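Write out the 3D structure for:
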Amino acid sequence: MNIGSLNIDHVYGVDHAVRPGETISAQSMQLFCGGKGFNQSIALARAGVKVWHAGKIGADGGMLVDYLRECGVDVTHTLVDDRYPTGHAIIQVDGAGQNCIVVYPGANGEMTQEEIDRILADFAPGDLLLMQNEVSILPYALRRAHEKGMQIVLNPSPMGDLAQSPLLEYVDIFILNEIEGYELTGERDEQRICENLLSRFPDCRVMLTLGEQGCVYADGEKLVRQSSFHVRAVDTTAAGDTFVGYFLAGLQRNAEIAAVLRTACKASAIAVSRSGAAPSIPAWSEVERAEL
């Protein structure tokens, strides 16, 4: 189950990301369904995993629910609250496929403790809960899920004040990039980031993504590296979210970790070769037959 954000993405094609005080013209503008939580639920579903998406939209967010449903995501716990606008993002994508993103939370920031309790009531000890940091009352959800004995996966993005949260001890699997790893540990070397987290949270597992350098997985027994697959980047917006979905899908299938990392990196490479966020996420069958 994923408690995550639901956004409408406004994606602008630009020569370069706008600088302070600068006004530029965009070559294109497109609307996409998005949000880290939304993208990760889509990735899980396309990787063949049963997933429930819990979140909140405004009256203007029907396209998001429709898209989730079409992709096979269970939307029983996707709430509509017409007091708030749906969250949205403004995304600049330059000629090299790199992006800059501004997110307005909207309804994502208005979830309540009562709603979290109703959502979690349908899940049991051992069930997997995935969360990011784009919805409100994350600490409450982490605490309640831990009390229920759920497996907690945290993608701490954006980091915000999570770095100092004592609730991090409830996390079973950290999925983070090198910037978030530095914010959590003060370390820049990928191996030291993993070692720091494992020393603080000995029972956790760490999945560190490194962009073009691939990724590193670490637990109390092993450290495994995987190189990235080199493709022409068109839009990197959903690369990390695609990785999250395919990584967790591989764990759910009890695959060997080396195979899990290879498949997740391959899926991410396919995603960055396409425009958009959720529309760029490949299906499992496509990833299996892709030769990169």
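The chain is about 30% helix and 20% strand.
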